Design the sequence.
């Protein structure tokens, strides 16, 4: 093999098939991760294995069945396409691989393959633009758990976040180019939610609420997921020219009430009740379309919006493997190795 530089793209992961058994296995691996349900081990085991997984698996399976395509789960399909395009653009100096934090292709198996290439450098690039311990942090930890046991540890490089790169913002603008915000009554930026407790844990001093995370992104809150989401929104809105009064930020997919607010589903209902007829929705925490975008926003929020008087909810597609996103990924890689 000529390539002496390996790139490992990592996304969250998805069940192997839309069946209750496979969804249970996926949810169990995912939610037993101490970075995802960050409580004491006994409490986590009881909560996850005794309550959340048994109740959630049948419900989630139904929506995974709606999401599934002939080629499989969109998260994997988009990831594979991205990997191929990045590989093609980078050429034979690099070898590009894709792994999922949960289920397949697993981080240990893909790293075993990379080990066999005997490369000088490895770059780990989690496909999450904003850092969260439960997504990026967990992916990086899983990689380190494997590599720490290697006899030869090559030069290891890690990307923690990149939401404020101009090329990433440009890629978001490209994904939205087919939609003119002026044709919509309002714009919602909906991010994956997090327990407030987890957001607070990035601070050495004070809590998120002691900082000014809705208004400014700076040295103090540089790893605060909430601050990063607000900054991402400002950058995209400025780039596209959406005035401040025309957009709102919300957080979706909560497991309980103590997650970041406002909740996107409640906002969608409010917008419709206020008389908004057309709503444009961005979801910049996801780089690939998945259950959370296609089903939660595209189907479930659309239903809420229409039930309450709205007429049209338009989801902006994720970056998937669009050309400017491929360029961004290649730029991130080439700047580092
Ligand atoms: C932005 C990245 C993500 C963060 C941060 C994140 C945190 C997080 N998620 C859950 C619980 C669930 N998430 C689920 C699906 C899911 N989550 C992400 C991304 C982030 N999660 C993606 C890309 C997906 C979709 C995967 C797919 O197969 O398409 C699910 C499973 C679906 C369901 O049953 O609703 C759960 C559960 C927690 C608890 C959490 C942080 C604490
Ligand atoms: Fe999630
Ligand atoms: Fe914060």
Sequence:
């Amino acid at each position: 093999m000529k390539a002496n530089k390996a790139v490992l793209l990592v996304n969250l992961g998805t069940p192997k098939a839309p069946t209750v058994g496979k969804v249970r296995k996926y949810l169990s691996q995912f939610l037993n991760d101490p970075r995802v349900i960050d409580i004491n081990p006994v409490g986590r085991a009881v909560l996850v294995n005794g309550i959340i997984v048994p109740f959630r698996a049948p419900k989630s399976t139904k929506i995974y069945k709606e999401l599934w395509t002939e080629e499989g789960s969109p998260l994997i399909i988009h990831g594979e396409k991205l990997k191929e395009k990045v590989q093609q653009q980078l050429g034979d100096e690099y070898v590009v691989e894709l792994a999922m934090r949960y289920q397949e292709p697993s981080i240990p198996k893909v790293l075993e393959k990379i080990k066999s290439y005997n490369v000088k450098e490895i770059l780990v690039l989690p496909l999450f633009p904003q850092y969260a311990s439960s997504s990026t942090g967990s992916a990086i930890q899983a990689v380190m758990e494997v590599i720490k046991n290697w006899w030869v540890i090559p030069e290891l490089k890690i990307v923690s976040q990149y939401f404020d790169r101009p090329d990433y913002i440009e890629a978001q603008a490209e994904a939205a180019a087919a939609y003119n915000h002026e044709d919509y009554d309002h714009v919602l930026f909906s991010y994956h939610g997090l327990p407030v407790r987890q957001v607070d844990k990035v601070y050495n001093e004070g809590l998120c609420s002691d900082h000014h995370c809705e208004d400014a992104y700076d040295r103090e809150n540089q790893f605060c997921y909430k601050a990063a989401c607000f900054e991402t929104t400002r950058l995209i809105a400025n780039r596209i020219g959406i005035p401040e009064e025309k957009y709102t930020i919300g957080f979706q997919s909560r497991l309980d009430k103590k997650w970041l607010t406002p909740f996107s589903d409640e906002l969608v209902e409010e917008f419709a009740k206020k008389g908004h007829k057309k709503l444009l929705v961005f979801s910049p925490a996801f780089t690939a379309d998945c259950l959370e975008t296609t089903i939660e926003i595209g189907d479930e929020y659309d239903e809420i919006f229409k039930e309450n008087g709205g007429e049209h909810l338009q989801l902006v597609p994720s970056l998937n493997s669009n050309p400017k996103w491929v360029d961004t990924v290649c730029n991130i890689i080439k700047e580092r190795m």
Residues 41-67 form the longest helix (27 residues). The pocket of fe (ii) ion (ligand 3) is lined by residues 199, 208, 211, 213, 221, 224, 226-227 (CB under 6 Å).
